[in-house]
Specification:
Elements (H helix, E strand, L loop, with lengths): L6 E8 L2 E10 L2 E8 L6 E7 L5 E6 L6 H10 L2 E8 L6 H16 L1
Parallel strand pairs: 3-6
Antiparallel strand pairs: 1-2, 2-3, 4-5, 4-6
Helix pairs in contact: 1-2
């Protein structure tokens, strides 16, 4: 059973767009799901951050490139990180920054 300490779920509204961020933490990495609107599996990336430069591979190509997630998530957590992002519309700079801040807050707890 998943305990509160390793699973976090956060809903946030940014400029009339509704996002759901879900993080499942493990000792050696994490699974992060970011969805807009419906909760669906989206483009999926896996990163391994054991060295200064993370190694990233695309599992399911995203509709819009989520390069910020690849680099950002791998830089704040070591280990294996899998990110799924279902975001139908492009993200502007403000929305991207808010999402990155929220993800960082969840992961650092």
């Amino acid at each position: 059973m998943v305990t509160e300490s390793c699973y976090r779920r956060l809903s946030c509204d940014i400029d009339n767009r509704k996002f759901m961020i879900q993080v499942l933490r493990f000792d050696n990495g994490s699974f992060v799901s970011i969805t807009e609107g419906q909760e669906k599996i989206g483009g999926m990336l896996a990163s391994i951050a054991t060295e200064p430069v993370p190694s990233t591979v695309t599992i399911i190509p995203p509709k819009s490139e989520s390069i910020f997630l690849k680099i950002y998530l791998s830089s704040i957590t070591k280990g294996i990180n899998i990110v799924s992002a279902f975001i139908p519309q492009e993200l502007d700079t403000k929305t991207t920054k808010v999402l990155m801040t929220k993800i960082k807050e969840i992961i650092e707890k």
